[in-house]
Amino acid sequence: MVKIIIVVIIGVVVLTRLIYTLFEKRNSGHSTDLSSNEDEMFIATQSGSNQRIKDLGLDQPSEDASSILNPKRLLLPTKNTDEPNDYQADPSREWVIELIPTDGQIFHKADFSKIFDYEWRSQFSSTLYGYAIEEKEWTYANAGDSPNEYNKLQIGIDVQRVYAEESQDYSPIQLERYRTELEKRLQHYPTPVRLETKESIAVAIQKARRLIDVYNQFNKDAIIILQSAKRFKGIEAWDALQCTGLNWGDMDIFHWNNYESKYGHDQHFSVWTSTDPGFFFPEEIKNGNMNPENLIFGFSIPRSAYPINVYKIMLEAAQYCQNKLGGKLLNEHSQPLNEHLEQQELLQLIEALKKEGIPPGSGKALRMF
């Protein structure tokens, strides 16, 4: 029984790539270019990747079934309605440290940029927010194009991230180190600055526990596996996926991209395989060396713009590929797929997420998962 999780698969893909040390020029991912220098990673346009498969004669599907992936069937919202109008620390998920000048002076970007340098950013994961004087709004204070003068600064420390990275060792030291380091660094600031927090570290840790519990409960993927009796012919699997309208691209796997809406994840669902290396090199498909044992269709439920509709359409795409390739449809546990049961469980999870105040695909869901 194999539980396939999207995030894990993508991690394996990256690790496998490093082992292969073969990289391609592309703007949205790091796929392979067999003629490139093995020690370099390149970035190029998506059109370059499209040209790559065109040169291999893999860009034209044998038939057009792209109506399956008609985005109008999803009934997507146009944008997230829970996004803040400005960029200020979020006390629901961050431990907030306020920086207050004791003599009423303003903060200059040139000065605090020296405090929040590369060493700070790499060792003390956090976000610096500032209330810009001229613009009269909160923004990311250390962004490249951010304003130069502020009368308020906040350090937002994502407690879920801090304690998840520490294997859920809920020691207060993990947050105390931020204050200690800030106090040391601010000794070199041109004007006196004091630190102020509105909640204790103990309260912040309770918040972290709650956030991580919710994450562990709801961080689930919707998975459909099309399993072959032995192996699918790679060229036929590639063609079937292209026929549905899926695009080969980021991470060398196939995606139904979310181009139409600013709501939810960048992809509605993706397709990969558990057959080594887990992704699809077009050159290996072309020469017959890549013949996958299965095709795995999946997406993150909490990050999805419309999970139940996406699942139904993903199922249609998997069924289409099954009709062309053969094989059996399985669930994530490699058991025969029960469509009704899977959709009922998905609906229950969606409702539970909403009760937690985390609508799937919302800004809050994207930040948390």
Features:
369 residues, alpha+beta, Cell Division Protein Zipa, Chain: A, Alpha-Beta Plaits, six-stranded antiparallel β-sheet, 12 helices, 17% strand, disordered N terminus
Structure description:
With 369 residues, the chain is α+β, with helices and mostly antiparallel strands. It has 2 domains: 6-80 and 218-368, ZipA, C-terminal FtsZ-binding domain (Cell Division Protein Zipa, Chain: A), CATH 3.30.1400; 94-198, Alpha-Beta Plaits, CATH 3.30.70. The protein contains 12 helices and 12 strands. The protein has helices at residues 6-20, 46-55, 109-115, 118-123, 159-165, 173-186, 201-218, 234-243, 282-286, 307-325, 339-355, 363-368; strands spanning 94-101, 107-108, 127-132, 137-140, 149-158, 193-197, 221-227, 247-248, 254-257, 267-272, 294-300, 328-330. Strands 1, 2, 3, 4, 5 and 6 form a 6-stranded antiparallel sheet that branches. Strands 8-9-10-11-7-12 form a 6-stranded antiparallel sheet, covered by helices on one side. A hairpin with a 5-residue loop joins strand 8 and strand 9 (254-257). The radius of gyration is 24 Å and the shape is elongated. Residues 1-42 have low confidence and may be disordered.
